[in-house]
């Protein structure tokens, strides 16, 4: 039913805010339809959720651009960015109370993520937006609202959702770039690589709180050492060269401030594709690479950390380790084991964020403190079994200790931000292979079954909700995700919050967490990211999270309880 939006708005002008509820439903505005799915209760509440819908024919995107996942994700990302820019250009300075006059589609960062912001379906294109309906005090500003919804919004939509009005060259490049990047990512396993860092890449960021590239004159572009240089021919005909990081164990060394952590951070973010101009377009990492760091104070529930830690003075069983307050080393061990449980193929570890006693123990300490008095078997003794038994590669930054020379397949030294292959020299310095413990250490891991009831706490009445990028409100608990560095976007956090609600329903006493997350991912693949949302129509601003971050959130939930072992 088409209703005249302007007519309603003229009628309710000056009335109490609740009269905005009359807008619910779908309205025709020129070539667009405006579906008003949820109306905010007052001007200060989160803005109203609306969808701007147009027929695929009117939108005019060639099928060639949207015939595959990468194409659809790239086009949707491009439209989202253009909508965001157009909204900033076209909507005047906000006036009025609370969120009056806000028009938002979310603000993608440097990554290109699958999002709910623009849906590209066979029959239609939909922009999912939030609009703050205008008010003075708590009174409706009907004329303002009419201008916003019937004049400005169509102009924004026209500029961003119609193919003919977009910069088509830029759009084509955006699509081609993402297809090439994803092709390269898929090619890594076949070449025996876990990561690729392209020649010319700009890795450093503008500042500690900005994800933008450091300015060209200030940054030293990446150049691969000749011995590690690999080349890829990509579907567009583009050829890229750069440093290949092979499966196995790679150690990054070098003086302080010579760019080690910067390289590792770029690799850690390389699990996501980056936009053109970011500098990390050709830093491509396998999608199953997970950063493992120390995180003292976190809660751990029923994790088998016995490959690293046994015989704790407290007497607790480290095959099913539970604590409300992990130490540096136990938290890092738990993070590592949980990453493996979630299916990590590659571990990324930086000395800056590691517990020293988890990583190494030197000869003097081994002499002073007998092995049976030391609960920790350091990572240096486990890094090879990890690869041999679980196929998990490691990329490790270690500027402070040569202990890993013995176990490294490759050693890369950074010197004034320039990498050199120093594997041969490092092996000359190695004191000999470390003896590995007899028998398998990692293979005998048991699957954890979580108590479904613990995800249904009595105090939980509302859906889980993101609190900024690094937190989730789950019932009365807050889940702290500040130490989960590959969670990069608030919209991912919100998607994880919904995913936890879905998991609470999916999990049963037969199903391990990884199995439940796999089932969840299959549903998302089949039905789209919208499926995660409890809302019909506008699903909210969501971006696709990886399974590692979904499991990281569940694992950090302090009221998690195990059911039993299988
Ligand atoms: P490390 O881990 O070796 O101590 P970092 O990676 O933290 O060093 O880098 C130290 C500083 O150098 C940071 O401010 C970083 O932004 C800067 N930096 C890193 N790589 C480059 C580069 N390629 N060009 C210019 N500056 C860089
Ligand atoms: Mg560092």
Short structural summary:
30% of the residues lie in helices and 21% in strands. It is an alpha+beta fold and 566 residues long.
Number of H- or I-type helical stretches: 14
The small-molecule ligands in this entry are: adenosine-5'-diphosphate, magnesium ion
What proportion of the residues is helical, as a percent range?
25-40%
What summary fits the major beta sheet? 6 strands, antiparallel
Unreliable parts: none
How far is the first residue's CA from the last residue's CA?
A: 55 Å
Strand residue percentage: 15-25%
Question: Any idea what the shape is?
Answer: globular
Radius of gyration: 26 Å
Report the structural category. Answer: alpha+beta
How many DSSP-defined strands? 27
Mean pLDDT: 95
Outline the structure in words.
There is one protein chain. The chain has 566 residues and is an alpha+beta fold. It has 14 helices and 27 strands. Helix 3 crosses helix 4 and helix 12 packs across helix 14 (547-555). It is globular and about 85 Å long. Magnesium ion is lined by residues 260-261, 352.
């Amino acid at each position: 039913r088409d209703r005249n939006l302007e007519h309603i708005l003229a009628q309710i002008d000056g009335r109490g805010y609740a009269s905005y509820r009359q807008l619910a439903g779908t309205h025709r505005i020129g070539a667009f339809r405006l579906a008003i799915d949820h109306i905010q209760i007052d001007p200060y509440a989160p803005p109203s959720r609306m969808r701007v819908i147009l027929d695929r024919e009117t939108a005019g995107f060639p099928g060639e651009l949207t015939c595959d996942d990468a194409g659809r994700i790239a086009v949707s990302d491009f439209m989202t960015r253009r909508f965001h820019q157009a909204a900033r250009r076209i909507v005047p300075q906000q006036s009025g109370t609370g969120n009056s006059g806000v028009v938002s589609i979310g603000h993608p960062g440097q990554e290109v993520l699958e999002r709910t912001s623009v849906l590209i379906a066979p029959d239609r294109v939909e922009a999912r937006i939030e609009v703050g309906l205008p008010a003075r005090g708590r009174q409706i500003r009907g004329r303002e609202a009419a201008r916003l919804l019937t004049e400005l919004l169509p102009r924004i939509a026209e500029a961003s959702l119609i193919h003919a009005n977009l910069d088509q060259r830029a759009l084509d490049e955006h699509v081609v770039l993402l297809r090439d990047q994803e092709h390269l990512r898929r090619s890594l396993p076949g070449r025996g690589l876990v990561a690729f860092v392209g020649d010319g890449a700009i890795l450093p960021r503008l500042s500690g709180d900005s994800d933008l590239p450091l300015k060209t004159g200030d940054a030293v572009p990446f150049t691969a050492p000749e011995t590690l240089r690999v080349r890829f021919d990509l579907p567009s005909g583009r050829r890229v060269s750069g440093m290949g990081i092979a499966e196995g164990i790679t150690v990054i060394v070098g003086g302080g401030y010579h760019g080690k952590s910067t390289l590792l951070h770029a690799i850690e973010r390389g699990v996501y594709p980056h936009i053109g101009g970011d500098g990390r377009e050709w830093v491509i990492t396998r999608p199953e690479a997970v950063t493992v760091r120390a995180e003292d104070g976190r809660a751990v529930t029923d994790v088998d950390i016995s490959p690293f830690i046994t015989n704790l003075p407290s007497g607790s069983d480290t095959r099913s380790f539970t604590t409300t307050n992990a130490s540096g080393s136990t938290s890092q061990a738990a993070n590592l084991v949980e990453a493996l449980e979630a299916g990590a193929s590659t571990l990324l570890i930086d000395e800056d964020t590691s517990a020293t006693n988890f990583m190494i123990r030197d000869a003097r300490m081994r002499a002073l403190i007998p092995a049976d008095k030391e609960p920790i078997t350091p990572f240096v003794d486990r890094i090879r079994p990890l690869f041999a038994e679980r196929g998990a590669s490691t990329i490790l930054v270690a500027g402070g200790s040569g202990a890993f020379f013995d176990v490294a397949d490759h050693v890369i030294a950074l010197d004034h931000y320039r990498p050199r292959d120093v594997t041969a020299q490092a092996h000359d310095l190695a004191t000999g292979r470390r003896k590995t413990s007899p028998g398998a250490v990692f293979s005998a891991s048991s699957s954890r079954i979580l108590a479904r009831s613990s995800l249904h706490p009595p105090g939980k009445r509302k859906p889980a909700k993101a609190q900024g990028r690094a937190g989730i409100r789950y019932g009365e608990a807050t889940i702290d995700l500040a130490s989960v560095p590959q969670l990069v976007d608030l919209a991912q956090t919100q998607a994880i919050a919904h995913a936890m609600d879905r998991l609470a329903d999916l999990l049963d006493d037969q199903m391990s967490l990884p199995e439940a997350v796999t089932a969840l991912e299959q549903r998302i693949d089949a039905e789209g990211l919208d499926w995660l949302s409890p809302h019909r129509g506008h699903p909210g601003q969501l971006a696709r999270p990886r399974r590692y971050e979904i499991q990281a959130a569940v694992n950090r939930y302090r009221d998690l309880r195990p059911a039993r072992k299988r």
